[in-house]
Specification:
With 303 residues, the chain is mainly α. The chain has helices at residues 35-38, 46-73, 80-85, 89-102, 104-136, 138-152, 160-167, 171-195, 199-207, 212-249, 255-264, 268-296. Helix 5 (104-136) packs parallel to helix 8 (171-195), helix 8 packs antiparallel against helix 10 (212-249) and helix 10 (212-249) runs parallel beside helix 11. The radius of gyration is 33 Å and the shape is globular. The termini are far apart.
Length: 303
């Protein structure tokens, strides 16, 4: 009597016989997911990270474009006399280009830029140095705070006649008033930045065995950088505004002189061209300070 044996089917992956109806064990390598399909584990490249920044700048340009269009067509709604005092944007742009080609604009721009940079640099250095001392030493703050509050609440333009009488109408008086206007924002923000450092950071530094000098340079000063740069940016704007006002009073060059001389000569488009150049100067200074702040504060991810 013969017996018949049935061969069990072989599993194509494991080459082992399997019984009918049973699920073969999975012993081979698992199928890997295609990263291009799933998108898992992919880190955005530099171009992808920079895309939101470019979109934000593009959205921000819409407001500027709308303002230019409003300036271009709004004077048409007024009388001819109104259009004389508020010329259209293309007329101002043409006057700005003529001043640039003739070299007058660059001469006045360079004079204002040099005065503002020199005064701003002096004010920043002095304000940071004194602000760090006042913020770190409580006794010094209590001694100097009343005097600083008196001068801080005195407008810089109110002291312009005093500076002109004492220092003349030359470069020294203009640089001095820029120093005065830019000094207090840097001083007060520096002192506030030192005082408002997180006490937990100071305790952690003391726990690690840092001495007073190391605690100041390695903990307090880096933590104060964002607040210090806030004061520096405010000081940059104040320096330009006060300088232009000083140049309007008594100067032979500068953007403020360009505006007043154009107004007195009834060159209205050139006057507006000088105003636009002041805005350009402020934009350049602010952009440079923002770039410097990001470079110094690379550790701060919020910048």
């Amino acid at each position: 009597m013969s017996t018949t044996t049935t061969e069990k089917p072989l599993d194509s992956r494991t080459k082992t016989p399997t019984s009918s109806g049973a699920t073969p064990p999975e012993t081979g390598p698992r199928e890997r997911r295609n990263p291009k399909r799933s998108g898992g584990g992919r880190t955005p490249g530099p171009s992808q990270r920079a895309a939101p920044a470019w979109r934000a700048r593009l959205r921000g340009s819409y407001a500027i474009l709308a303002f230019i269009l409003l300036w271009e067509f709004a004077p048409l709604l007024g009388s001819p006399a109104f259009q004389v005092f508020l010329p259209r944007f293309h007329e101002v742009a043409l006057a700005w280009w003529e001043l640039l080609v003739s070299g007058q604009l660059w001469e006045h721009f360079a004079a204002s830029f040099a005065r503002s940079i020199v005064g701003f640099a002096i004010a920043t250095a002095a304000g940071i140095a004194l602000g760090l001392l006042i913020g770190w030493y409580r006794a010094l703050h209590e001694a100097l705070n009343p005097l600083l509050e008196v001068f801080r609440n005195t407008a810089a333009l109110a002291l312009l006649p005093v500076f002109v009488l004492l220092l003349g109408i030359g470069e020294l008086s203009k640089i001095t008033i820029v120093v005065y206007a830019a000094f207090f924002p840097v001083l007060l923000n520096t002192a506030a930045g030192v005082k408002t450092v997180d006490p937990l950071l100071i305790r952690a530094g003391m726990t690690l065995g840092l001495n007073r000098y190391q605690l100041f340079t390695q903990v307090v000063l880096p933590a104060s950088v964002p607040t210090i740069f806030t004061g520096i940016r405010i000081a940059g704007s104040s320096a330009i505004l006060v300088l232009v006002a000083a140049e309007m009073v008594g100067a032979k060059s500068g953007l403020g002189f360009l505006i007043t001389s154009s107004q007195n000569s009834f060159l209205i488009p050139q006057m507006y061209a000088g105003v636009l150049t002041i805005s350009l100067l402020g934009l350049i200074v602010n952009s440079a300070l923002v770039a410097l702040e990001r470079r110094v504060s690379r550790w701060n991810s919020t910048l």
